[in-house]
Amino acid sequence: MKKKPVEDSEEFLNLIREWQALEDKTISSAEELISRSSNPLVKMTMEMIKHDSEKHKVMQQMIIDSITKEAIHLSPDELAPLSDMLNKHMEAEARSLSLADAALEKSELFVTRYILSYLIADETKHHNLINKLNELKRATIFVT
User: Are 1 and 18 within one domain?
Assistant: First the structure.
């Protein structure tokens, strides 16, 4: 008898749903601080946090839907255009990182350097995550 994946358990789904609820609280808190603050740095930071939590919720919902509605599927034919776009995006991100590094090198103000450092870290994270999609490509080729 084949063992069911942990994701099929109600316990797993409850963990993801609880995580979504935390993201909702973060979004709410960020919106509340945005509405109260007149400081552009505070507003920008809260906007970043809010958008990050919104993105997480979308991804968490995809996990839930893939378990409760329809499994995620991706054929090599579907992967090809995605792969092309991601390759172009990685080239753009590499150029973005180069520009950000050059700007950081020329920057003198603390707040500017803080924002540029955040952007560099974020772009680096995205670049690394997109690189991980090579694993998805390999898995797709072996599964189909």
Answer: yes
